[in-house]
Amino acid sequence: MRLTSISQARLPEGRLSSCTVPVTGTGRPLPVSFDQGMHVGTGPRPGSWMAVSLELAAPVSRAELGAAWAGVVQRHHTLRTVFSADDDGRVRLHEIADAVRPVWTGHDVGASGTRAALQAVADSACSPLARPSHRLCLIEPAAGPVVVVLAADHAHVDAWSLPLLARDLLDGMADHRAGRPVGAGRAPAASFVEHTRELAARPPAPPHVARRWARILADGGGTMPVFPLPLGELGAPVPETVTTRDVLDAADLARLEARAGALRVRLLVLVVSVLTRATADLAGRPLRAVLPVHSRTEPRWRDAVGWFITNSVLECSDPAPESCRAAVRETLELGSHALEPILRPHGGMPVPPGMFMLSYLDYRRLPAAPAPEQRAQHISAAAPTTGVQVWFVVGEGGLHLRARYPGTGQAHRSVGAWLDAVGAGLRAAARP
Length: 432
Known about the structure:
The protein has 432 residues and is an alpha+beta fold. It has helices at residues 34-41, 62-75, 114-125, 161-178, 192-201, 207-219, 250-263, 267-283, 321-334, 339-343, 409-429; strands at residues 2-5, 15-20, 26-30, 49-56, 81-85, 91-96, 103-107, 134-140, 146-153, 240-249, 287-294, 309-316, 356-362, 377-380, 388-395, 398-406.
């Protein structure tokens, strides 16, 4: 699956429509995860969603797609929940009490084209407090395959969730075409709410974990890590710059994985080694970055949709593989405990201008993968930013990265130089 953004995604011009499951009533209150609370607590805004797109070669009807999407919503409990915010900003989550009945709406594409119209639909329909905050969109060009886009606010999905949504939609379409009830023979997926409850019920983190978090924040002047090179004036969010680079092809990736195997380390460890060296060479500093880690620690969560991510911090000053392996292990340990009680004494998770985040995902390890002919894309929203986020994405075709950073001249130079060094380092590490 290709990671891209709404500003760069492959999207045809054509008729645009969308399908939703209207909410008229809500039921029982539900627990809110730490990350959901921070995300939704910022309030309604554009650019908080993520999506997966698929090309479908065969003709498809709205009735078929709507029935399949209703089945997806029925299978994944988080899609049947909605957020609200009290006057004091407290975030609440409620279960949707309605039956799941799809409703279609047509959208005027206008002179700005399909991409702008799709972005406007997702920005409005998939905002954190929308009811519901997800939408299926259909693009029908005059010729060629139709494109289906499944979009949802980040509070309900993560990158792992996207291919699961795509798979379940295609399965539902197959059921509808075969005359079977959509979802027949498939049990509901595990609920993210249960994951939230389980995490809250765990014993407190060991004292050494809390002390390490305190040290990390102290080293950052009371905040999470920032990008190690100048980014320009960031008193307020500025328009983003997004760049995507192909770094390793399939043969390069195979060689790098073979090297990791010979060293008895994970591929991620060698990537961290390259990042550590690039940071030291350019900034003269250790690598310090926020690193989201998955919390799907049990088999039942592998097939579940939700925000199964917690933030941790990666810190590494030595590019030697054994040092990088220790750094990755510490990162995973720091992210394996409930963060809210750990960070409460520090005012929550303090996000500074220039916060540096690294993300790593190997789509080959996920339980679902769209077929190559569907040309699947993981599409991120567009929004002003003050931070730097770099994704490293591994798939059957190799490794590519996507970077999102403030669109200042200084950030272009600094982040561009860092990306150049990282790309060169990965290619050198993969040479025969």
